[in-house]
Amino acid sequence: TGNGICKCRVCECFPNFTGSACDCSLDTSPCMASNGQICNGRGTCECGTCNCTDPKFQGPTCEMCQTCLGVCAEHKDCVQCRAFDKGEKKETCSQECMHFNMTRVESRDKLPQPGQPDPLSHCKEKDVDDCWFYFTYSVNSNGEANVHVVE
User: Which residues does the UniProt record annotate as the domain Integrin beta subunit tail (predicted)?
Assistant: First the structure.
């Protein structure tokens, strides 16, 4: 494929190429998702293309999910039990909801604002008492989830 030299009817591939015809790129940059993870952490990078192992996720970097809840709805119950000790997951909070670091802030203007390096979602959700609560959800380059919630 132009990515190696043929010697005795066998391809000897140039660096960063492999395969019987040197047609498989070892470059993983096309597989890099916006969160800095290879294939969004939901697939493997094979020949410079993501092979999504989680069937819900698809697309060139396994970031599209048609059936997924939004980030806010997905984490609302865990934020509610961790921050306010109430909601559907109150009884199972310590088992199910320890997957993020949580920081309390005094008011909405103290929440992290867009423009930081990590992808950030601003959330406004209703709690079990039909009151609004506000939080942000972000994932840093180490894959750690961080939540800031308004007291």
Answer: 72-151
What's the one-letter identity of residue 42? R
Angle at CA 55, nearest 5°, toward 52 and 58?
55
pTM as predicted: 0.56
Cα 59 to Cα 1, 49, 55, 70, 135, distances in angstroms? 26, 10, 11, 17, 28
Q: What are phi and psi of 105, to 5 degrees?
A: -125, 160
Report d(CA 70, CA 47) in Å as an integer: 31
**Does 91 score more than 90 pLDDT?**
yes
Res. 107: pLDDT tops 70: yes
Phi, psi of 30 (to 5 degrees): -65, -15
Of residues 40, 123, 111, the one with CA closest to residue 77: 123
Give 4-64's CATH code, choosing from 3.40.50.300, 2.10.25.10, 3.30.70.3300, 1.10.4030.10: 2.10.25.10
Cα four-point dihedral sign 30, 35, 37, 41: negative
In 3D, which of 19, 143, 145, 144 has the Cα closest to residue 135?
145
Q: In whole angstroms, give the CA distance from residue 60 to residue 32.
A: 9
